[in-house]
UniProtKB/TrEMBL annotation:
Belongs to the iron/ascorbate-dependent oxidoreductase family. It comes from the Eukaryota. This is Fe2OG dioxygenase domain-containing protein. Keywords: Iron, Metal-binding, Oxidoreductase. Gene3D superfamilies: B-lactam Antibiotic, Isopenicillin N Synthase, Chain (2.60.120.330). GO terms for molecular function: metal ion binding; oxidoreductase activity. It comes from Digitaria exilis. InterPro entries: IPNS-like_FE2OG_OXY (IPR044861), IPNS-like_sf (IPR027443), Iron_ascorbate_oxido_reductase (IPR050231), Oxoglu/Fe-dep_dioxygenase_dom (IPR005123). PROSITE patterns: FE2OG_OXY. Residues 156-268 form the Fe2OG dioxygenase domain.
Amino acid sequence: MATEARLPCINFTGVDPSSPGAGRWWTRWPRSAASTRTTRALSPDLRAAFFDGAVKNLLALPADAKRCNTYGRDKPLFGYLGATPGVSSGYESLAISERVEPERVRAFANLMWPDADNAGFSEAVHGAARWMAELEEAVQRMVMEELGVCRCHGAMSESMRHVFRMSQYMPPISDDTEGRSKEVIRHGTHQDCSMLTVICQHGEVDGLEVQTSDGEWVRFRPSSPASLVVMAGNELRAWTNDRVRAPFHRVAVGGDVARYSAILFALPGLRIQAPDELVDDEHPPRFKPHCNDDFMRFCIAQGARHEDKLRDFRGV
């Protein structure tokens, strides 16, 4: 049973992620025309329109249509997920992968609804994905500036691929005569293979649970309807030479309403190796250099076990 908690919160209202300036720009938050767009993207009305008008309709498609969302047998985590080993049968998810650009979103929509006018769906999905990608890049830059390695930001950002995943977690079936149901795990305990993961959930249906460094499970409770979660993945942990922790997390749902979320995974195309500034006598190398594709293949081969896959893969 997880306890409820509010994760550390940064207010990005008024931030222009594309023009950070020098120093700790996230504490100054200068307003600009671009920052107005950022604020609008966080509004509860637009979030509801995205989920109710796009995501729910997508997840309501027949199973055969959803299974068309594939990127080949060698990339099983890049497309449709349903009844996946280690994941509950009450979980389904579809994804747009590599670069979430307008033409890729339109191609995805036309694959799902070949004979429909998909302009509204494409606009809503691309708008959400674009803003989440801007936030991911801003947080990445924040981390690099804090660690004194901002020189690496440009190359890392240029190499980044994104997987934009839209997911549904079904409520459990009632298990007693009064119609009550216990919570069930709809996505098992895991760490992400990404540099960063940005999570946007719909409405009041919570479910994300994060394990703290002392082993306690806490449930994320949004500080406002506009809150998003930014979570470090194992590749950021490796790149920072274990200075940034990649938490184990899971999704548990109860009640009688489905949970919907949009998740943006940032996957680096560069070889993952800690910068020289982050390696010294007090901080010797913790992981051997590697590529994200190889790490993801290792994780898929290992299946649903919950041990430290990064350390098993390339730990020193």
